[in-house]
Structure prediction request, 410 residues.
Amino acid sequence: MLALDVLAVLSAACWVVLALGRNLFWLPRPRLPRPGPEPPPGRWPALAVVVPARDEAALLPTTLPTLLHQDYPGRAVVVVVDDGSTDGTAEVARQLAAPPPPPDREPQDKERLACVVVRTGDRPAGWAGKVWALAEGAAQVPWATWLLFTDADIQHPPGSLRALVGLGESRGLDQVSVMARLEATGWSGRLLVPAFVYFFAMLYPFRTVTGRSVRRAAAAGGCLLVRRARLEAAGGLASVAGAVIDDVGLAKALARAGGRLWLGYDRGIRSVRPYPRLADLWAMVRRSAYAQLRWSPAALAGTVLAMALVFLVAPVAVVVGLLLPDTPAAVAGGLAWVIATLTFLPLVLEEGVAWPWALGLPLAALLYLGMTLDSARQHRRGGPQWKGRALPGPAAPQRPPHAANDRPGR
Prediction:
């Protein structure tokens, strides 16, 4: 069993390096300051919130009001972009956007933000649907200093816009992005949702997303605030027109243009999209997993070997080592599993999941490995789809966006 002993020792060594030598990626830090630094009175920059929505009629009544009732002190508008929906998304958004009639004896709510609902025009070849919707929405508000791209399933707590823009202004940032807290329901959600954040942070340690390093640049697309001037210097959204993983791609484009980035956590900014079944999470991950590897068979093979060594060897070594017995394998495998569990625990608790689920990281890794392999298989069979629409491949053509709708007045 010398081979197993060696693999178990290597796995334990990998975990020591990961736990201590990767900027403590496993801690949910940094956090969005609340209350955060704010510009002087009367100096709040203009802000536009762009919400791409494709078949989101069921979620908008829960999420859109949390944006409309923000107390942002400067000029601000919410732009909901209906991206070819078939479930009445635009109609629901317009109903929610319509200001309520003033009550008989009470003043009308003055903190309610203006809201515009537009539909996307014809999508150019090579553009991913979400990126095109963002481009169409941004074209409606040329006056905005800041653009907040936020998904239709994201719920924002009071003061969210002030905190995001305040941080960006006070630190001279060009990107402020927050990893939204995800819904973790059912056994698959409790196991896989914290693991999704964990693996993302392992790839892009949040503490390192602070400067202008393109290699370390990253963002979370559910809540992504960008300074418009820097976005235009980076080539606009056309720079990531065909990107399946558009958030990280946009962050790298901003970094190449000299932008200063920030990526962190906030428990109040949360997704309300449910993932009640394993199949729902599987489909979500499968659409972009192979794109993360740049559609490379060599990278896929390397990922399989690396994940097997880091995540799967430890439990196998513990079980086999106890049954044979093989003390070196059991001890080394046990050490690796303990370190993995302890580093996974903070993000498990961050997502509101009970601590025993942290023991399941090897199983979560095995399932994510299956999703990645399935993503590669789907790509070979014609490419991924999302909500009934094919996603661009690795060599998709691009062309600049145009404003397909009339721009609202200032």
